[in-house]
Amino acid sequence: MKKLALLALLLSANWASAAPFIESDPTTQTVSHCGVVIDTAAKYDVAVVASACKIDISGVTVGTHTIKATFVRIDPIWGRSESVFSLPLTFTRPAAVMPTAPVGLVIIP
Hints:
Layout: H1 2-16, E1 21-23, E2 33-38, E3 44-47, E4 54-56, E5 63-75, E6 79-82, E7 89-93
């Protein structure tokens, strides 16, 4: 039973850190989406998770990027209302560094 619990814990830890994310502070507002703009691409919506914007950035290319976000509320009567953009966040995705091949392989009796 202990081994099963340990396995479940290890698997959940790996799943939780599967991709790099950018996350906002939680909000007390009633919002359902975040509008996201990365660099100069078109704005797209992501669902709010635990009262915060959680943006997956695993697909960005190597280099420096800027991201901005808004909170979005969709009202059945008044339609879409959106906050102003957040301050931009600039981050850099580094190039993949390949490890060198192992050397000195030998047979040990």
